[in-house]
Amino acid sequence: MAQQQKISLTRYLVEKQRADGLIPGQLRLLLEVVARACKSISQAVNKGALGGVLGTAESENVQGEIQKKLDIIANEVLIEANEWGGHLAAMASEEMDSIYVVPNRYPQGEYLLMFDPLDGSSNIDVNVSIGTIFSVLKKPDDTPGVQEADFLQPGTQQVAAGYCIYGPQTTLVLTVGNGVAMFTLDREQGSFVLTQEDIQIPADTKEFAINMSNMRHWDEPMKRYIDECLAGKEGPRGKDFNMRWIASMVADVHRILMRGGVFMYPWDKREPEKAGKLRLMYEANPMSWLVEQAGGAATNGKQRILELQPTKLHERVSVMLGSRNEVERLTKYHAEKA
């Protein structure tokens, strides 16, 4: 039997560009550059202690979180890779206070790129899967130059989104709005190879992911849902649930894309003025789009995350995503309380 031909990320994107016109040339370039940056980050992550990249930097990011050395390295890799290509107008990142406009010495493109350069920072030093999340928007045509307001578009406006997970394999997961494709890094070849297309999340699941230690701080609907899961076969759900929590959104979402499940990072009363912990623009939006493209659902407990109108760059949001039937149940419980 002839060996099946490997389809590289580049070929996949070129064929998408040709066939469906889904990917304009500039967007294809952008996605290839992001993938290349992820390869560099993957190498830094793989070297670990040997590369002198572990541990804490002497700084905090805009959210007041202690930065790890690898957070900063990953951020720089993404900026340096993307700033000169001519496909971007500006970038925004979890690790930067305000937007990064492409310097004047380079041509300006029509796209905006947002990223969480290294999600799951608490896991960097303990050899647990971490990843890079990204989201691409088109700059509004009617504005000269580029400002922060240009980024504040609802998730429905995304033109591409994805993440790269650095685990036992380095895997790139991508959507441009017609399903979800997965590429695995072939280290010998140095290229991402298509390993799965049209990923579908099962509508039902027996697996939930949440940080149970915060239970006393949650809202009633959230407590009710988890209590019912914990009651198992004898409870109202009539089935036993398993719990998972990796504390790395990329890893938790990746598991859900591969085998179903529901991931929750709800509002809690320790910081009642904040809608949640996760960031809407460069964590919740790209992940929600991927999950929806794979047949799942994503809400903040009240409404679809992708329809939320952002008001600031680092806005936070409550997140419930994954297997459709579970997310719908959760949303229903929140609606009943309201």
Automatic annotation (TrEMBL):
Pathway: Carbohydrate biosynthesis
Protein's gene: fbp
Segments passing through the bilayer: none
Fructose-1-6-bisphosphatase class I N-terminal domain sequence ranges: 8-197
Cofactor: Mg(2+)
Gene Ontology terms for molecular function: fructose 1,6-bisphosphate 1-phosphatase activity; magnesium ion binding
Keyword terms, alphabetized: Carbohydrate metabolism, Cytoplasm, Hydrolase, Magnesium, Metal-binding
Name used for this protein in its record: Fructose-1,6-bisphosphatase class 1
Highest taxon above the source species: Bacteria
The family this protein is said to belong to: Belongs to the FBPase class 1 family.
Residues annotated for Mg(2+) 1 binding in this entry: 94, 116, 118
Lineage: Bacteria, Pseudomonadati, Pseudomonadota, Betaproteobacteria, Burkholderiales
